[in-house]
Design a protein that fits this description.
Blueprint (H helix, E strand, L loop, with lengths): L10 E8 L5 H17 L4 E6 L21 H13 L2 E13 L2 E9 L5 E6 L5 E3 L5 E3 L11 E5 L2 E5 L8 H9 L5 E3 L6 H19 L2 E4 L1 E7 L2 E4 L3 E3 L5 E4 L8 E7 L1 H10 L2 H4 L14
Parallel strand pairs: 1-2, 1-12, 2-3, 9-10, 10-11
Antiparallel strand pairs: 1-16, 3-4, 4-5, 6-7, 8-9, 11-14, 12-13, 14-15
Helix pairs in contact: 1-2
Protein name: Hydrolase, carbon-nitrogen family protein
Keywords: Hydrolase
GO molecular function: hydrolase activity, acting on carbon-nitrogen (but not peptide) bonds, in linear amides
Amino acid sequence: MEPPPKRAGVSKAAVGQMRATNDLEANFETCSTLASAAASQGCSILFLPECFAYIGIAGNDALAVMEPLDGPLMARYRQLAKDTGVWLSLGGFPETGPDADHRYNTHVLVDSDGDVRASYRKIHLFDVDIPNGPVLMESKTASPGDAIVAADSPIGRLGMTVCYDLRFPELYSRLRHEMGAQIMLVPSAFTKPTGEAHWEVLLRARAIETQSYVIAAAQAGVHSEKRESYGHAIIIDPWGKVLAKLEDPDNGIGIATADIDLGYLEDVRERIPVDKHRRKLETFEATVEKE
């Protein structure tokens, strides 16, 4: 089956790629440059990756910079949105957590007036020992969120997730079918080994199965001796086609842009109406036949 024809784009979005470090000021300057570029290209919203404000060297470094969403660091990013006139999806912020030893990894949506419209605390924490790669135990210094969040924006309804959430398709199913999300956001700092193996295929799968746009901002390149990110920030359409991508993880700091066409999204959903065909499997009896 061929995809439906494209309609005229109704809005333009920018996905960002950067290489954050433990230098708060340098990270802010990079984000400022990306926001200015998005504004100059006529984008209404810029998507920034997980850990956009800070990536430490040790796992607990972020505890030293965590603060509430009404604190001075977030205030700078809120002012940046206001100054550029661009909405900002801030993919993962070290929000003050439930105790001194834990923060939240919080995805924050800020409008062009500098107001926080929504925030989502990452639910699935990345605790893995990657063969030939880093040992990352996010739960040692972070606490998981307990709410699923969608929010309206100039380009449509956004399903807010963060990085490792990508591996849990039931989250995206609920965002689409129960909360009406049209654009799934996956701001990330994917490791190089997992990124090379799984990044694009998982993102395209989420786009195809939810018939939604997927926008995945990315960290890229070497942050420190202990940490490297895969990059390849990407925008994918509801048919699973890659619309825009930053290829080079070392020199690819910048933005990629694409039109978000909600009319086209509705055409895709009407052509294969999975929403009408979907069954509530939690109501089905489940059996396992044993030997």
